[in-house]
Amino acid sequence: MALFTSFLCLISVLAAQLALSHSETYIVHMDSTLLPTPFSSHHHYYTSLLTSVSNYKHSEPIYSYNNAIHGFTANLSPSELDAIKKAPGYLSSTRDEPLKLLTTHSLDFLGLNSLYGAWPASDFGRDVIIGIVDTRIWPESKSFSEDGMTKIPARWKGGCYGGTNFSTSLCDRKLIGARFFNKGFRAANPNITLIDSARDLHGHGTHVSSTAAGNYVQGASYFGYGIGTSKGAAPRARLAMYALGFTREEGFYSSDVIAATDSAITDGIDVLSLSIVSSGPLYRDPVSIATFAAVKNGIFISRAAGNDGLSLKNILSGAPWVLTVGAGTTDRDFRGTIILERDKVSGKIVLCQANLIDEDDALTVPKDFKGTRVAGAVIIVNSSDLPLVEIDFPAIFVNPENGKLNQDYVSGSHEPKAILYFKETLHGRKSAPKVAYYSSRGPSPTSPLILKPDLIAPGDAIIASSQEKYPVNFLVEGNRINSFGVASGTSMAAPHAAGVAALLKGAHPDWSPTAIRSAMMTTADVLDNSLNPIEEWGSNRAATPLAMGAGHVNPNKALDPGLIYDADTQDYINFLCALNLTSKRIRAITRSSYNCSNPTIDLNYPTFLAYFNCMNGTKSVQFQRTLTNVAKTMSSYSAILDKVQGFELTVVPKTLVFKDKNEKQSYRLKIHGPCLPKGTVLHGSVTWVENGGQHAVKSTIVIVNV
Ligand SMILES: *[C@@H]1O[C@H](CO)[C@@H](O)[C@H](O)[C@H]1NC(C)=O
Ligand SMILES: *[C@@H]1O[C@H](CO)[C@@H](O)[C@H](O)[C@H]1NC(C)=O
Ligand SMILES: *[C@@H]1O[C@H](CO)[C@@H](O)[C@H](O)[C@H]1NC(C)=O
Ligand SMILES: *[C@@H]1O[C@H](CO)[C@@H](O)[C@H](O)[C@H]1NC(C)=O
Ligand SMILES: *[C@@H]1O[C@H](CO)[C@@H](O)[C@H](O)[C@H]1NC(C)=O
Ligand SMILES: *[C@@H]1O[C@H](CO)[C@@H](O)[C@H](O)[C@H]1NC(C)=O
């Protein structure tokens, strides 16, 4: 009590001196174990604290948080912040920052089917609850109808919060929760009008939600392309939308993301999909901190890797406790046909050559065409793999060979004419998947000791539900309205992976989030549909694990991995302890007292990343891993190494015998070899192959100097 009185005095003096400085919104992390005596709750304490630092003008936090982090968000002047820093329980603070959004058939491509594998084994994800933190939802979309859904699981503690154009009756047995969080956005942008509800005016959140767990919708298509039955990766799972205050220009705010995650943890979701970029070291990135709490509560996190493209080290969402998902293409093509020399043509068709590869090596929309009014166009492009391009008129993109035919026809004909046919959808294109050119490459600067991304999932040209009323698409502005939208990005890959995780959770309710991630990674495909190594889109080079992690997710194989690399909260803490962070920084993540008696950077991860950026000579690196038997009671496995040229890889022991289910066995991997020149990325693998059985548990080994 005495301590508390004296700090109040100190604060008011400081506040009086510097009261005029500019205020900003801060997220303040507080120690949850410390609650000064007069207060009945942390919220009361924070309110009193804020009131005292702002010269006793009653002041409430914008948010107070209990789960995702401990602490609050408030608008603070520099002096008020300084005063807060001296308060009991203060751990750290970060400025609330605007965050970026990452911009039907994919499931067949993943091998999901009603007859065998992850769908029937999990009853299509029934009773698994997927939370989506995103730009709101269009609840009337058929993807969120409750047809065929059973009663809401009794453990669900969340609710449906209505608001502008969103009545609570719009929630049902599919969309079981809807909340909105926009106070952080409002604090930063007081003059921007936001609607107060989870109503999607943009489309992104609707698209992501239906991709993860949309119900079956027959006859879905994108203006006639990709006609079929639309459904999510886990078509019977439940959805809960945690909607963020958002505009295209401003993005959204970390304080709102934390508040959303905080609610999601309390509500009792199983899987969280985040197509959101945040940045900063683990101990300062509020989203990494919030997801640590979620994983501690048994929630699986699927995070989009980012859309920053080809240069290495640009994954900002690489916390070791989340699944970081890159984007791959599928085997579907949208096509058109050009018939030359017919009479029934109206309007002008232009024939032109476009270079879709700009100086940054990125495939871009030909901007010259925006707003052009022509009847149609034939555009010759120099790339066999075209990105999704949206333009305002009918156009067919052709390769230089077909382009030449068109050119010859046009120059050789007195009155050249053509008809363009559209809406042809082709499946089975070889080769797929490829790693999308925009998918962010690892390693992650926020967690450089762990290989990121973890894997890739379908993310390119994905058709899913869209908001249905407002004539905007979240890709381009225009006047198109359709129940389904097509979009590309790691944003679309994360909900695919979240849906797959939901299927695994449904089939194996006792698996931890880390076990589920391990199953997805050790069974991922590294070969494409022509049985060649998965390539990078645009280069025809084999993709490295810095682009695709362990490979392309394979849900049916992940259902039955044989062995898993598990880790619990203490293992993640042991990893943080070895990073030489100050105790305050560790506590900013763990938010409570922690035990650092066993620090190790050797997290029990399903992949290996070794740096050989020494100067001269050779080097040795050693890893230790523990496998848990999740298959039958008795089994033995032998290590098969896919070598890395110039390196000596040793596994000890070479055989692992499991006598019981859930039994654990450990092994060491030693890598010995030369120091590497800067920019080198080499890779191999160690696979534990079951003797006389079907299981193969593969771990990618990456040796780099980057
Ligand atoms: C709410 O819905 C009404 C009727 O559907 C519409 O006129 C209005 O523009 C909507 N308001 C917002 C903010 O979307
Ligand atoms: C908001 O609008 C008011 C009145 O138009 C103006 O004085 C103020 O500067 C604006 N604030 C911001 C943050 O733009
Ligand atoms: C087309 O690709 C070839 C081979 O990659 C390259 O040499 C040529 O410059 C490209 N042409 C255009 C117009 O981009
Ligand atoms: C932590 O500090 C120790 C001792 O200074 C050092 O050996 C180790 O490499 C550091 N670990 C990291 C991850 O920087
Ligand atoms: C920390 O963990 C170690 C073993 O993991 C245990 O022996 C020790 O008692 C723990 N310390 C505290 C303070 O809990
Ligand atoms: C590495 O080896 C080269 C040639 O042997 C030598 O010139 C250089 O000084 C060495 N560098 C270091 C850091 O040892």
Automatic annotation (TrEMBL):
It is found in: Secreted. This is Subtilisin-like protease. PROSITE patterns: SUBTILASE, SUBTILASE_HIS, SUBTILASE_SER. The keyword Membrane does not apply. It holds the Pfam family Peptidase_S8. GO terms for molecular function: serine-type endopeptidase activity. Residues 602-703 form the Subtilisin-like protease fibronectin type-III domain. Residues 1-23 form the signal peptide. Residues 25-101 form the Inhibitor I9 domain. The active site is at D134, H204, S491. It comes from Buddleja alternifolia. PANTHER family: PROPROTEIN CONVERTASE SUBTILISIN/KEXIN. GO terms for biological process: proteolysis. GO terms for cellular component: extracellular region. Belongs to the peptidase S8 family. Keywords: Glycoprotein, Hydrolase, Protease, Secreted, Serine protease, Signal.
